[in-house]
Amino acid sequence: MGVQSESLLLPRTAVVEFNALARQVQARAERFVQASEGLETTKDETRDVVVLESTLEAVVQSLVACKDSVDQAIDFFMNQKLAMDNSKHDMTEPASMAASSTNEGQANDQPDLTGNDEAITKTGVYATEVESEHEATDASAAQQAENFPKEILLENVNHLMFVIHGIGQHDDFVEKPFDEESRQKGESSNFRELFSTMRDSLFAKEIPLSLEIVPVEWHAQVHKSGADDVFDSICPDDSKMLRGINRRLVMDVLYYSAPKYGQMIIDSVTKQMNDKYNNFKKINPNWTGFISIFAHSLGTLISYDILSHDAGQVGANGVVFHGLAFPVENLFCAGSPVPIFELSRGHLDIHDGKCTGGMRRPKVNHYFNLFHPADPIAYRVEPLINVNMAPYPAVTLEQSDSFKYKTFGEMVQVVDKLTEESKMAKDWMGPRIDFQVRREGWDWFTGDFYAPLSHSVYWSSQDVVTITLMAICRPVVDILTRYIDHKIPLPTLRPRRLVPFTPYKKIKIATTTQVRDGSTGAWHSRAVFLARKRVYFTPSAADVACTKKYSLAFTANSIVEEDASNPRVIRFTADQSDPSSATQTLKCASTTQRQEWMAAMRAALANFQSGKSATTSYVQTHGLDLPSGTDVAFFDAELTSTLQYKWGLFWYNAWYVLTKTSLDCYDTCPAIVNWEHFSLKNVFANPTHGHFRLVNRTGTSVTFKIEEQAQFNAWVEAIKEFENHSLTFEEECN
Where in this chain does the record put each DDHD domain (predicted)? Predict the structure, then answer.
């Protein structure tokens, strides 16, 4: 016995419309075939074909028209299908209600918008959120993880990372004025931009990471000490260029090895990091986070020496170490000559021709030695700590591309398995140190010829940045590792206190402004919206703005009525005393939705007509770069939904917004999906530079600037209207 196909009722008007669309697709497809036949001007398959540009353009245009027709037909069909699927669900309604629905007539026989279809109802229907911070728990992520819940709420992962360059001149490592928008291109800026990109692409959805990257430049001070002038005076005239290269590169190593200049470099790097740390803490009060150092080449030796000596300790060559004012969580050494220097300094335990280790570990919680196999400057560390590690290979970094479609938990599983498999020596204690960068592209074919370039590959390596970011997110990694060790399914990760950005938010003022990225130090254009407790950020105003089709203002004679013939229909007349005021017929997704809209509209009309809500406080948008014909007047909405309005015999979808004084219709709802928010609890304003700095309770901050004085003042006055916040004025530009 064959399977009987299920039958569905399809409105005749829909069949007519679909047939018309089919004929349109056929006609445009035929025009595309005709146009493409004009391309074949010769039968000689061995020759190129000479084609008129106008002919090729006609082919493209006809193909685009054909595609448009197909897309239009698919959209129409899917709407019909969605309506039919939902109508089957609606059969559960009382029989009397279903009967009244079928008596609506042909005009009302059009597809209904129903509450079950996510594709429609989740565009334009927003849950009315309360601004209070609803959380299931106030416990920290680590405390939550003790009972292995299915979801963990994460606080901000705050991190400060110093980046120290190697040999040679690095002007791009010189910190620019805080307010300067232009950034010099170089290893520092490219590296920081790569961090920002990788953070956003791999971590942003699950991990609320606030990473501030601060470069440290030490080369200039040494070379301005007068030593370079002496070097130039002893160079023969015929070799100035080559010896100039020696001065800029090789001499850095010799300078550092000499007590006088070595002391100068150690003092410069130590003082810079301490000063920058103290300044960072000053502008980020109550900051709680970890600190890392990422160093390259000779910078790794400088960092290693600082971190392997106590404050006040004197090194073997007489250099005094004054110590850092903060603990260091991670030390990342890329292209590091530290092992060869430890060997040459005689710091290893070598007896009777055999080395038994002896290399000191730096005083950090986690030490990473990153090297490229062809880098002539870089060496392994582990065999100098434990000689038994010499036969065992370093951990090869996982390709960052393999993480693109993984959750953070899945990334942790990959790295955990990678490092676990590499723990081969039984007497090796603790996490691995040596990590090898993969060969890529031409590197595979050029072998040792790639050596001169391999020493700088770390600045552009996505694999290096990925493992660094994973280490920076260690507080979360450690939590997930407990799940892995106990063989428990990984939890869902979610940033805590994530407050939705919806049309129900009362936005006071909105501006397109410049927001500083702490990872890159660069300023980026963003649309900024000021609400009662928070400031919301979106990439642009276009991500929020919508085109308004019309607005029906409330009057003393406005009336909203139910349609007795259809339990989903609402009839609204803006002014029943005015013969020219047409009645707007709207169809809801369900009877429940109609009840919600009827109650909300009646309440809004009652308040308006009684004088309780005589005005609507629209968003101040001076300085907001809105696309032409759009607005953001839908904020502070009373209710929003995608409804259907009747035009002739057909029903069409539109997004409706009920305000205190009107019913507004937009062509579509705002797709507010890419946004961030920051608390208004602590605000620091700088009138001289137009800066606003927001600092949350864990010390995480964001800075944006409004350079137009009148607009800056408008923001200040708007912030003053809100309660429970601290507004401090400052003059320094940090």
Answer: 324-474
